[in-house]
Amino acid sequence: MGLKSLVACVGGCWVVLAKLLAVWN
Fold first, then answer.
1. Which domain holds residue 15?
2. Around 19, how many Cα atoms within 13 Å sit in the side-chain half-sphere?
3. Which domain of life is it from (predicted)?
């Protein structure tokens, strides 16, 4: 697992969290 893969995973997680927060609010 390279650094790019790790960054992509973290970035994707933040996108999902942002969508969930938008739904809850």
1. 1-25
2. 6
3. Eukaryota
